[in-house]
Amino acid sequence: MGRSVLVTGGNRGIGLAIARSFAQAGDDVTITYRSGEPPEGLAGVRCDVTDSESVDAAFTEVEAAQGPVEVLVANAGITRDTLLLRMSEADFTDVLDTNLTGAFRVAKRASRGMLRARKGRVVFISSVVGLLGSPGQLNYAASKAGLIGLARSMARELGSRNITANVVAPGFVESDMTAELTDERRKEILDGIPLGRYASADEVARVVRWVASDDATYVTGAVIPVDGGLGMGH
């Protein structure tokens, strides 16, 4: 029988690849999205992770359709890139509220059912930027670094109930955004990646699915890089 899986921000990019990977494995998958329509072939529910009531309503809808969430992938996130002296307080707090506090909101709501079931898998999608830092991304890097503390504290707090909490930290992934980079910037990035290429979203998705699988039942509090070696040692 498939598990009940919820992927936040699963309507595009890495989130969509993760959702499709779980669905292909036979799980019951719902994605959250803020605008537009859910991707073809996947169930979707509107949710704003900056709003606790919206999060609760989304979980209630998912629970009615496919049962309590057994696997949560906290992927929803935004960027507001700019240099420190140009970054407004709103630029900083909005990114933290979505990327970090939003992950807290969905993890807290998911933990209710997981504690009752005495099992669960939570995967936070961070970034190599949260380990290395990046000029022009103080807000984003801070939010992604914060996920590590969040996951490791959850791992210690909920581990006795057979609930794992892990972090997957992708590096540069082939996307519409990276495709728009200049040749010079692409070369600069690739020169820093030992494997000499970007990841595909599917490569990230396979790692997420593994860490949420029965093959990783003794893995918790881990930070798993999927970055081609870019951040090794951090």
TrEMBL record:
<dbReference type="InterPro" id="IPR002347">
    <property type="entry name" value="SDR_fam"/>
</dbReference>
<dbReference type="GO" id="GO:0016616">
    <property type="term" value="F:oxidoreductase activity, acting on the CH-OH group of donors, NAD or NADP as acceptor"/>
</dbReference>
<keyword id="KW-0560">Oxidoreductase</keyword>
<dbReference type="InterPro" id="IPR020904">
    <property type="entry name" value="Sc_DH/Rdtase_CS"/>
</dbReference>
<dbReference type="InterPro" id="IPR057326">
    <property type="entry name" value="KR_dom"/>
</dbReference>
<dbReference type="Pfam" id="PF13561">
    <property type="entry name" value="adh_short_C2"/>
</dbReference>
<dbReference type="GO" id="GO:0048038">
    <property type="term" value="F:quinone binding"/>
</dbReference>
<comment type="similarity">
    <text>Belongs to the short-chain dehydrogenases/reductases (SDR) family.</text>
</comment>
<dbReference type="InterPro" id="IPR036291">
    <property type="entry name" value="NAD(P)-bd_dom_sf"/>
</dbReference>
<feature type="domain" description="Ketoreductase">
    <location>
        <begin position="3"/>
        <end position="176"/>
    </location>
</feature>
<dbReference type="GO" id="GO:0006633">
    <property type="term" value="P:fatty acid biosynthetic process"/>
</dbReference>
<protein>
    <submittedName>
        <fullName>3-oxoacyl-[acyl-carrier-protein] reductase</fullName>
    </submittedName>
</protein>
